[in-house]
Amino acid sequence: MRLKLFIFDLDGTLIDSHMDIGMCVNMVLREMGRDSIDPEKVRAWIGGGARNLLEKLFSDEELNTALELFRRFYREHPVVHTKTYEGVQEVLAYLRSKGSFLAVVTNKMEDLSREILKRLKLLSYFDMVVGGDTFPEKKPSPLPIKQVMEQLKVYPQESIIVGDTSADICAGKGAGIWTALARWGYVRLDSVIPDFFLSEPKDIISLL
Question: What is the pTM of this model?
Fold first, then answer.
């Protein structure tokens, strides 16, 4: 295995963002006359994008309004409590120093993802940032990963995705690339089995 491309999920893999997402969800709930929830509760809902998360709390009739409010609040408060996981920046710098291509493939909106990466001083490490709205399909579809490989001219056997949910692993397998589970994140794994299990960010270096 000779890896040239490392693809990363964002929430629960590079950054711990659940408190800010939970804060903004509570802003929406209060705006719509509902009781707040424990922000920790959203940990189990992160990964499928904002609409998927809000479907857990709002009816079909309320959903579009809730989504519009959430996106507005989150854009206003993208990095209040959010932080990079310990060791992530050092790993990205090391991979860069070895000439690896780096990309983010997330189901979060692309512009918001870029803004968060920029504020956390991570954006400059990446050759591509792909959001849930960048292409017609998002994870678990393999399409975003295939597009990254095509644009960076890298083969599947030279590529790996690191993520914390089944959506990441399924997208990777569908694209024919290697897969690794970030056990430090908001881990949700169904029947799919990744090629590698990683306990902490620095374990990524051992994949080189």
Answer: 0.95
pLDDT tens track of the chain, all 208 residues? 899 999 999 999 999 999 999 999 999 999 999 999 999 999 989 988 899 999 999 999 999 999 999 999 999 999 999 999 999 999 999 999 999 999 999 999 999 999 999 999 999 999 999 999 999 999 999 999 999 999 999 999 999 999 999 999 999 999 999 999 999 999 988 889 999 999 999 999 999 8
Strand partners, 198: 182
| Segment (H or E) for 106 | none
Domain definitions of the chain by residue range: 5-16+83-207, 18-76
Q: Could you name the CATH architecture of 18-76? A: Orthogonal Bundle (1.10)
Q: Please, which residues bridge with residue 163 across strands?
A: 181
Active-site option among 9, 11, 164, 203: 9
Q: Which fold has domain 5-16+83-207?
A: Rossmann fold (3.40.50)
Alpha-carbon dihedral of residues 80, 81, 87, 93, nearest 10 degrees?
A: -10
Active site residue 38: no
